[in-house]
Write a structure and sequence with these properties.
about 375 residues, alpha/beta, eight-stranded parallel β-sheet, two-stranded antiparallel ribbon, 11 helices, 12 strands, about 35% helix, binds zinc ion
Length: about 375
């Protein structure tokens, strides 16, 4: 088993500036300036944990590269790409919808997209069995004509388009377990029957008005977009139930050639940007279930790209669990927050969680075969 890993120190140099969480601060406002919530710390600590445990050395390094403008334009409008380029060449700016970046942000965002493309290529070429791209900035909120929710370019969507156009891949399934709705990815593939997009997210969290159950795809893509709305306060058992009840059966029905994952760890119980109770074991078990489905459906081809996750203390252990499960490496290190999180009320499966997840399960019938 070989697991590819994409990392570039420059990803950590993407500078979101001085804010208070995500709110503008300072000046004459009443808010004291602090760091922006989407900063390098959680991701860097994830990489550091892999390093100190000797995991990174056992993974296959996949070299990142800058995506070309032609590659970016498979998803994004040329005018938008140009806007980001111009701001990036000056003093930076905002790509839209709470997406600040500093000078040079275009180059780092292009390097993130290129890292995801390189990983998808390596998995499809058989250079590695599966892999993880620990990139920054994240991508799943980015829309064709603007940035959104800390995302400049839609890394995973561009990766999917690349692999479909350059390799013999007709069907891709995209599983988004970031706690926020993968609205950008949904938008890109909403009428595309060749890509099954499933987003499991805290209902109404972000963006507030998207990710609803009724958003099931349109035109030729009818039935190939599934939103699993999970109520706030849900944790380990609800997420595994959503996998058993919806994600895995949907994959077996759709039969993809490649499974990609928008891997955010903000459903973790310590995260400040959502209200869920997952832990490292949750992400480990979801990865295990995905891998086993991938083994039967698409020669084990699973490629993950990093999205959100804003608890610098907790994210590394959720990430480690995923990398261990993908690679078969066992460090024996468990999520140290798990004993605390498993004592919370929503950790076990509750009736209102079952009801919301079952509603998404009914959509499996709509997936065209
Ligand atoms: Zn998120």
């Amino acid at each position: 088993m070989t697991t590819g890993f994409v990392w570039n120190e420059r990803y950590m140099w993407h500078d979101t500036g001085s804010f208070a969480n995500f709110l503008p601060a300072g000046g004459t406002s009443a808010i004291q300036p602090h760091i922006h919530i989407e900063n390098a710390e959680a991701k860097r600590r994830f990489k550091n944990l892999l390093d100190v445990l000797g995991v990174t050395d056992q993974l296959t390094k996949i070299k990142s590269r800058k995506a070309t403008e032609a590659e970016l334009s498979r998803v994004h409008f040329k005018e938008y790409i140009k806007q980001v380029q111009v701001m990036s060449g000056a003093d930076g700016g905002d790509a839209g919808g709470l997406t600040p970046f500093a000078k040079g942000g275009f180059d780092i965002a292009s390097l993130a997209v290129g890292g995801v493309i390189a990983l998808f290529d390596a998995v499809m070429n058989g250079e590695v069995d599966n892999g993880y791209a620990l990139v920054r900035p994240p991508g799943h909120h980015a829309l064709p004509d603007q940035g959104f929710g800390f995302c400049i370019f839609n890394n995973i969507a561009i990766g999917i388009k690349h692999i479909q156009e350059t390799q013999n891949v007709s069907r891709v399934a995209s599983i988004d377990w970031d706690v926020h709705h993968g609205n950008g990815t949904q938008t890109v593939f909403y009428n595309d029957p060749s890509v099954l997009t499933i987003s499991m997210h805290q209902s109404g969290c972000y963006p507030h008005d998207s990710g609803k159950l009724e958003e099931n795809g349109e035109d030729n893509g009818q039935g190939t977009n599934i939103n699993i709305n999970i109520p706030p306060g849900a944790g380990h058992a609800a997420y595994l139930y959503a996998f058993e009840r919806v994600v895995i059966p949907a994959l077996y029905k759709f039969k993809p050639n490649l499974i990609v994952v928008a891997s955010g760890f903000d459903a973790g119980g310590m995260d400040p940007l959502a209200r869920m109770l997952c832990d490292g074991e949750t992400f480990r078990k979801m990865t295990k279930m995905l891998k086993s489905a991938a083994d039967e459906l698409c020669e084990g081809k699973v490629a993950m790209t990093h999205e959100g996750g804003y608890s610098p203390a907790h994210v590394p252990f959720c990430g480690l669990a995923v990398i261990e499960e993908l690679s078969g490496i066992n460090t024996g290190v468990e999520d140290p927050f798990q004993p605390s999180l498993s004592g919370h009320g929503g950790y076990k499966l509750l009736p209102h969680q079952i009801e919301m997840i079952d509603a998404a399960g009914k959509l499996i019938d709509n997936i065209p075969t």
